[in-house]
């Protein structure tokens, strides 16, 4: 390794250490920080973000990147130089005034959004969203893009992805999902959810969550599970991965599937390559790939019949009163009920992606100027009717439901659906590589799947881009087919439908 | 406020924000961090310490200090410039190689100390302590000092204190304590401790701790209480103060007095002046003053008869089985038993400072070259016999018991005794200013004392130096008389002795 590259890696480790502090501060803010600590925390996080930016764009590091770009590197070195170059170029192109104005606007816009949602009054949020969209367009112009302007924003969450490539995949998905939802709805079959809505003492829910995480192979020596209002997975390094969940005493799925979901994220983080720790090559590759890991565990494993073949008896032992009369088929149906609903975060596996596609389309239209912010509520409601057959009675249950846009997260939503598509494609491949996978899951042996994910996906870090990784692991480009096949196989059978 | 001073304060806020991150990382390391996170945490903390040093000694801040020193400032501005100048000069005088060598030696020395204490073999630690002492002397030579070389080390923990000033006060204290301990021991009166050694369910101990903290006025909206192996008070700002405690199911005093002690530290932090937050003027003034706040609450309040007049009935309600037959006098005697013992952290109020004086004297002798490291165990044991009449059977119970020297904390020990002396002097003054103080405490009304401490001490931040503060609050210079009078009044009565 050249002395130049060694110096470069030292600088990356410094960035990683600043990221370590920022990761802990974010986690703490949502878990243990006392309320009055918020103001100083916000300031301190701002200072660290500023320091991170300063170090990332420091002339010394810029010069190192320039030298190393000429050095014909291979392997991790090439990945690290490419990624730092990408992040650095992006940061260098954004004038400080724009970054500060965007940050302040997002902060105030988020406050405005809270008030607007409470009052279900989009007009209160509209001027802020107009300003945010305008600033985001400025950002896109500054950082530059090929093809759609939207790509400049998408790149922040799903590096190297392009709207031109994902739009047709999403369109294919929509073309299949809308009629599938209609068919399911038309059956009138709504497996009773009552079984999940009983009293489930939180102490036993905690035991259950800990047990499932342990079975998944989540390492509590290198991680934690805590409480948070909005569950997430955070942490400071692969050796310190922090999951959060929340418990509701009268609704089991919230904590159970939430914990499995975050556990999927956590396994990805713990499985990142140790030998590239603290450099881009050792980090997760994209939000879409991250979400594929959580959704694969939550839905494809956690809501499968095989999974409940093993866990329902365990669940009955924890909750004998609630579940003694519930058989596998009834429980499996209960955790897989499909019903068009207004709120994305409560949506089932089949309808969920329609919520996302709607947002993706509207985001693109906003950025390309084809929908004005003022027209957004109506556009939202129309598409809800078109895709899911229901119309929000007010904007709190419609366009105001998600926090993302108020925080400037434009370009983020598609990573959720990408995650579902990646997950189905990976899960399909896992079945090819592990012919006994269903039987293993039905015996509670989750290790083989975890090991497969570790080897094929987690240990690859960011050594391949998301689309390269999908092709490397599955031998095929991203396609909606795997997910659609998965849905038809599972829900066709549950609802007695054939394709 | 001049533009120069404004820029200076911006730089101080950046330092405070880095300190915020460091404070959280330290707290987390002792409370929630999973074990495997330790290595990356150590590296990240090293990086942040390096950044702090870089910013503190940055040419821009050096130039700002130089400009402001010529500006004849007053008030907080004068304090801030003086304190940053002091910290900066100290840092600038220490070559990076020395700082790194010291840090590494302390780290390895601490590991060696752990092994040496386990095996009770001082020889394993001796070469490390020799190196640490040699490096600390180099530090002293570099930063410079007036009078004793020891002053250069003391200054890090008790700014502006001088060995020449505290040595006579400590000598006076020792001259009184040694015969007092002898007289108490000679009475043969050892109030039974059995009452404290029963089973006390931890859940109730937690309730008790929370209640006492609330009564003391510790604000849980701006703080927390968590578990830690070695209790401490940490945090990130006056709005986010984190206490820790530990519970033993068969020994009540550990958590109870530990929580009150840390609560005293916590009240100081929460009471620091908001308008000087994030600058030296708004920070605590010295470790000695900090310790005065914890010891005042722990011993002078928490171990007083007045306190137990109010709390014993509450304690009985929580632990009816254990305490129904115990009256106030018996309980008061039990929490105030005096007995010479080997371990500092378990020592009672009367013998405690003799443990400290011994360490202070040996530290001075080590630095001045009057005792060699190799002679330390024997010197330790001799003085233990001289001061407390007992001789450690081995070095684990003697010279190897404390972690401080292995971590390079030479000059730290005297702040414990300074804290006790300050506490007694403050508590005396509080009685002058609040004639009903005893009666208030006996009614569980701790607010007036808290308010007095807030106004007289906490809200002063570092606007006065420790010795100035003592004189400002009590009208007198630091003296051992207050503490000795306090001991005689309390323990003379308990043990039936007169002066």
List the helices and strands and how they pair.
The structure is a homodimer of 499-residue chains.
Chain A: H1 3-31, H2 38-56, H3 59-69, H4 75-93, H5 96-119, H6 122-143, H7 150-154, H8 163-187, H9 202-216, E1 223-227, E2 233-237, E3 240-245, H10 252-270, H11 287-301, H12 305-318, H13 320-323, H14 328-334, H15 349-368, H16 376-388, H17 414-433, H18 437-442, H19 447-456, H20 466-474, H21 481-495
Parallel strand pairs in A: 1-3
Antiparallel strand pairs in A: 2-3
Helix pairs in contact in A: 1-2, 1-3, 3-4, 5-6, 8-15, 8-21, 9-10, 10-11, 11-17, 12-14, 15-16, 15-17, 17-21
General description of the model:
Two copies of one chain form a homodimer. The first copy, chain A, is mainly alpha-helical and 499 residues long. Chain A folds into two domains: 1-93; 106-499, Neurolysin, domain 3, CATH 1.10.1370.30. Chain A has helices at 3-31, 38-56, 59-69, 75-93, 96-119, 122-143, 150-154, 163-187, 202-216, 252-270, 287-301, 305-318, 320-323, 328-334, 349-368, 376-388, 414-433, 437-442, 447-456, 466-474, 481-495, and strands spanning 223-227, 233-237, 240-245. Chain A is built from 21 helices and three strands. The first copy, chain A, has a three-stranded mixed sheet with strand order 1-3-2. Chain A starts with a helix and ends with a helix. The A-B interface holds A 13-14, 16-18, 20-21, 24-25, 28, 32-37, 39-41, 43-44, 46-48, 51, 219-224, 226, 236-237, 239-240, 277-278 and B 13-14, 16-18, 20-21, 24-25, 28, 32-37, 39-41, 43-44, 46-48, 51, 219-224, 226, 236-237, 239-240, 277-278.
């Amino acid at each position: 390794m050249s002395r130049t590259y060694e110096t470069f890696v030292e600088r990356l480790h410094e960035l990683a250490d600043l990221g370590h502090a920022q990761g802990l501060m974010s986690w703490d803010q949502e878990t243990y920080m006392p309320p009055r600590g918020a103001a100083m925390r916000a300031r301190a996080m701002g200072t660290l973000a500023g320091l991170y930016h300063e170090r990332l764009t420091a002339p010394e590091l810029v010069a190192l990147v320039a030298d190393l770009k000429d050095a014909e590197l291979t392997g991790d070195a090439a990945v690290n130089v490419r990624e730092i170059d990408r992040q650095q170029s992006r940061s260098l192109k954004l004038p400080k005034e724009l970054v500060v104005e965007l940050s302040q606007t997002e902060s105030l816009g988020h406050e405005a959004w809270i008030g607007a949602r409470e009052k279900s009054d989009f007009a209160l949020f509209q001027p802020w969203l107009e300003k945010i969209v305008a600033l985001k367009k400025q950002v896109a112009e500054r950082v530059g893009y090929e093809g759609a302007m939207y790509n400049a924003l998408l790149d922040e969450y799903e590096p190297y992805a392009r709207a031109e490539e994902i739009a047709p995949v999403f369109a294919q998905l929509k073309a299949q999902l809308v009629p599938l939802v209609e068919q399911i709805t038309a059956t009138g079959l709504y497996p009773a959810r009552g079984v999940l809505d009983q009293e489930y003492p939180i102490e036993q829910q905690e035991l259950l969550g800990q047990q499932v995480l342990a079975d998944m192979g989540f390492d509590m020596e290198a991680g934690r599970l805590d409480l948070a209002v909005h569950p997430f997975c955070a942490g400071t390094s692969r050796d310190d991965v922090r999951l959060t969940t929340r418990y509701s005493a009268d609704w089991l799925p919230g904590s159970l599937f939430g914990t499995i979901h975050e556990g999927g994220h956590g396994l990805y983080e713990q499985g990142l390559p140790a030998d590239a720790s603290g450099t881009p090559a050792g980090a997760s590759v994209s939000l879409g790939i991250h979400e594929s890991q959580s959704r694969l565990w939550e839905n494809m494993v956690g809501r499968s019949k095989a999974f409940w073949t093993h866990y329902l008896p365990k669940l009955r032992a924890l909750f004998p009163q609630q579940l003694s009369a519930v058989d596998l088929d009834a429980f499996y149906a209960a955790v897989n009920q499909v019903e068009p609903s207004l709120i994305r975060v409560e949506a089932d596996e089949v309808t969920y992606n329609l919520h996302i596609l709607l947002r993706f389309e509207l985001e693109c239209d906003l950025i390309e100027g084809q929908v004005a912010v003022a027209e957004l509520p109506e556009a939202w409601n129309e598409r809800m009717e078109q895709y899911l057959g229901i119309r929000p009675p007010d904007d709190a249950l419609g366009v105001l439901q998600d926090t993302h846009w108020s925080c400037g997260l434009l370009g983020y939503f598609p990573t959720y659906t990408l995650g579902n598509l990646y997950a189905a494609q990976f899960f399909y491949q896992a079945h090819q590589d592990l012919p006994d996978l269903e039987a293993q899951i039905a015996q509670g042996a989750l290790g083989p799947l975890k090991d497969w994910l570790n080897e094929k996906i987690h240990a690859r870090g960011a050594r391949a881009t998301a689309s390269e990784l999908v092709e490397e692991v599955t031998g095929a480009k991203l396609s909606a087919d795997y997910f659609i096949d998965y849905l038809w196989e599972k829900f066709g059978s549950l609802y007695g439908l054939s394709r």
